[in-house]
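To: structure desk
From: M.T.
Subject: fold request, one chain
Message: Could you run this one when you get a chance? Sequence is below, nothing fancy, just the single chain.
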Amino acid sequence: MSGLSAADLPAMSPAELRAAWREQYRKPAPDIGPDLLRRGIAWRIQARVHGGLPRSTTRAIEKAQRRLERTGSVSSPRDLAIKPGTRLVREWQSKTYHVLVLDDGFEHDGRHYTSLSQIARA
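Reply: Done. Structure tokens follow.
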């Protein structure tokens, strides 16, 4: 099966898919249905041909996985926060909204908010 391509996958039986998974991932296939096996194998084939995820993305996924194992949840990383001083502009239902990002929240129409959700509900 070493010459396997993504085009071969739709015609493969579940047993053939499990064998292809083992060949691609070097470990037994997880207990998932044929459709997910096909998707996983197709991704692996494409990653080998076109390159996989960037190392920074892989590190972020691994970090989230460790956080999930430790805490039971995956919260969004704080390093993706919007920098203070940034002005957010959004048009919605023919009205333009301007929000200023602060060190401790947001300012909209001269009022302070701790989250963008609060502004949306206001």
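Reply (cont.): The chain has two domains: 1-76, 81-121. Let me know if you need anything else for the meeting.
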